[in-house]
Amino acid sequence: MHPFEGKAKANSAGSSLPYGAGRTTVQAVTSESQAVRRLLIGIMLIFIVLMLILPLAAVFSQALKKGAEVAALAWTDPDAWAAIRLTLATALVVVPLNAIFGLSAAWCITKFSFRGKGLLSSLIDIPFSVSPVIAGFIFILLFGAHGWFGPLLDAHGWQIIFSWPGIILGTLFVTFPFVARELIPLMQAQGIQEEEAAITLGATGWKLFTRITLPNIKWGLLYGLVICNARAMGEFGAVSVVSGHIRGVTNTMPLHIEILYHEYQFSAAFAVASLLVLLACLTLVLQYWLDRKRQVH
Amino acid sequence: MHPSSTIHPKPPKRGNKYRSRLAASLVLSLLLTTASGCSTKDTASESDSHSSSKSGKTIELQNVSYDPTRELYVEYNQAFQKYWQDKTGDLVQIKQSHGGSGKQARSVIDGQKADVVTLALGYDIQAIQEAGFIQEGWQQEFADNSAPYTSTIVLLVRKGNPKQIKDWNDLIRDDVSVITPNPKTSGGARWNYLAAWGYALKHNNQEEEKAKEFVKALFKRVPVLDSGARGSTTTFVEREIGDVLISWENEAFLAINELGKDKFEIVVPTLSILAEPPVAVIDKNAEAKGTAEVATAYLTYLYSEEAQEIVAKHYYRPRSKEVVNKYKNTFPAVELLTIDQDFGGWSEAQNKHFADGGIFDQIYTGQ
To answer: Structural domain boundaries of chain B?
Structure first.
């Protein structure tokens, strides 16, 4: 062990510096020459411009290439409206459901210990590791005409695949881990002391949840919901497989954009794309604001 | 831990309460908008049916089609809607779905509730029949092999034809780069391939080995194999890759009209192939929905004079003799092979050329 361990610990108590940082000179962090530092910062800036700012600018410039009227026409087209409505409705169904699921899962995993906890925790990550296309095919295998539940659904005249329930299921699957993954580290870091204290003071389960747990995690939860919402609106792969691409009925915004692009309506495609980008920017602003809130609390 | 959260001094607590109320109202408003979103959709469809309930009922028809027919069916659907309303008083709302022909057939087999399919190849409709959705003999249900319009394969080159491409044999020249989609995934690409094959057979005394060499040399000239016809057109016109695009005639005309008459021109080769994109009623779905009658009428009306005019306007070759005559400048006569007479039908062509281990695999992986 390090001879100065005890001293270093004492020194760094109350500060977030790693132990021993106080003894090394400030130079250690910036020992690289000016040129190297500028080069590294330059590389990062070039990367950000090339990979993030330029493509976004391209989307907007393409959208307005044939004038604002063409873009406005693309937004007000009935099929585009149907796609926008479907996308928003899907997000509005999926996000609350994922909030409930994410909260329960995170609560269960961080506040209790039980057998199979590690397994449950990794199961939640499955949608992250499975390609969205496969997620789509999973639902076709389950609910398609020749799927496991196909004949049953057919007998009742229920349509899941190639209709909106399929789109919601696909999106739900893909966005499943977002809230839970956001909450678990946060709740793990917070520990269970406050809850334990509340219980000894006689709080009921509901009171405990609404007065202690929820206020502690609410910014993290909202942050998770915002990310979940962003992904739900942008999902392409899984939805493409189960949608059936019926114009004005089962096309979401990402699918509508692809169709417009393939129909040589490049300006219209990018007009709708820029709308989706604007929604994403709105998400980003919300995310930024929530992130600051979360750090304050 | 956060000391503030355990002590709960009064002012921040009030703030917390306010904020949690804010959060709650946010969630509530989200839910409300969902609910109202659903209800507006319902009322919208209700009002649709009300407005037409004076004269008749509203029928919804789903047409699952392939990629390049989009513009054609936008116009035809309006014509049919009017025709049917005049005849019966019922309002038909036609919902369209477009995609690669094979993929679309797969969706119907997997349970997409199409009333009719209008696809690129008989082979794809055959697959739907084999899955039990269509009764046998669908190809005889409507006139002309159930194909109300035809098309052929042409060559699209850049304006002024800088590489002087006149016919199929120019495509294997070293200085020519050719764009065509992948015959394994694209219906259109199979027609392209078979047209080239037919040309090579004809010019080599029907020797298959020579034909094989010819298509092998041709695919050596292809830098990008897109998965669908639309993808290839985009590669050629938007990304400006290649000297010549092997394309559906209607797709070539569309590219010229949408993207500039000053950029491309069509070269009609000396020999091509008659493409018959067929149509069929999906009997199982139409019977279940009670739309069999209108679905049949929808496809039958494609053969009417009015529809044939629309067909020609969208650069498909019409079946009606009068309309063909009227548009003979648009569609020059060309010697056409047919899939049934020259290739023994789709099943045989498919097995011989495009199945795993077939001729296309041999020439393409053998490169």
So the answer is: 53-147+277-313, 151-275+334-365
Domains of chain A: 67-296 (1.10.3720.10)
The more confidently predicted of residues B99 and B79 is: B79
pLDDT for res B213: 93
Contacts of A218 in chain B (CB under 8 A): 19-20, 23
**Nearest by Cα to B116 from B82, B65, B151, B73:** B65
Q: Which two tokens stand for residue A6?
A: 């005890």
CB-based contact (8 Å) between B202 and chain A?
no
Chain centroid, CA A21 distance in Å: 36
Query: Is the Cβ pair B20, A190 closer than 8 Å?
Result: no
Task: Give the 3-state secondary structure of residue A19.
Answer: coil
Q: Which residues, listed in sequence order, are joined to residue B244 by a DSSP beta bridge?
A: B157, B178
Measured between beta carbons, the chain A residues lying within 8 angstroms of B107 are: 162, 244
Is some CB atom of chain A closer than 8 A to the CB atom of B230? Answer: yes
Per-residue 3-state assignment (H helix, E strand, C coil) for A186-246: HHHHHCCHHHHHHHHCCCCHHHHHHHHHHHHHHHHHHHHHHHHHHHHHHCCHHHHHHHCCE
Write the CA distances from A52 to A64, A66, A164, A266, integer angstroms. 19, 24, 32, 21
Q: Six-digit token pair at A40?
A: 């590294």
- B89 vs B59: CA distance, rounded Å: 11
Cβ contact A297–B2 (<8 Å):
yes
Check CB contact of A151 with chain B, cutoff 8 Å: no
* CATH top class, domain B53-147+277-313: alpha beta
Which residue, among A76, A51, A267, A89, has the nearest Cα to A165 in the 3D structure? A89
What are the C-alpha distances in Å from B237 to residues A100, A273, B50, B228, B231? 49, 21, 46, 15, 10
Rounded to the nearest 5°, which phi and psi values hold at B193? Answer: -60, -45
Residue labelled with tokens 């065509």:
B180
Phi/psi of residue B286, nearest 5 degrees: -65, -40
What is the DSSP pairing of strand B279-281 with strand B116-118?
Answer: antiparallel
pLDDT of A26-84, one tens digit each?
555 667 788 898 999 999 999 999 998 999 899 888 888 888 888 888 888 999 999 99
Flag whether residue A180 sits within 8 Å of chain B, measured between CB atoms.
no
Residue B173 has pLDDT above 60, yes or no: yes
Residue range B151-275+334-365 forms a domain whose CATH class is alpha beta
Judging by DSSP bridges, how do beta strands B178-179 and B116-118 pair with one another? unpaired
Q: Touching check for A201 and chain B: CB below 8 Å? A: no
